[in-house]
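Continuing the series of single-chain predictions for the mutant panel. This is the parent chain; the variants come on the following pages.
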Amino acid sequence: MRLTGTLMAGTATAALLAGSLLVGSAGTASAAQYDGTDPSATGCSASARTVGSANIGNGAALLELRYSSGCRTAWARITITNGNRCVAGVDNCAHATVHRNSDGAEYRCYTENDPARHSCYTLQVNDAGVTSYAYGDIDLGATSPSGRTGSF
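Parent structure:
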């Protein structure tokens, strides 16, 4: 009888622990649905803020790590700030990448996908309970400086 009581107590403890793990991971599960999606199309950009930034090439580009508190996601954005527009195959095109530290998942954007624009942003990664950072570069002809934000 005592053994049964111990097993039952152990089973009850295990059930409580499993239940608390499920509750604790609920935010992670809901954020995972946004992995690889567009932050604007999903509405995640509405609750976004810049949590890290880096100037690249003496101010030629601004790299940002964006974070949505509502969706618990992160993405990278890069903007060419030296006044030049990107011309595919020519200088002044920029790239940005968001990198999730826990598993190395990455998404990248390129300003040359639309030569009329001077910025781009990546798809988003689930950032619930993990950290991510942004890195990017710009082609300035003779040099291609790069930069990175801190992790958030």
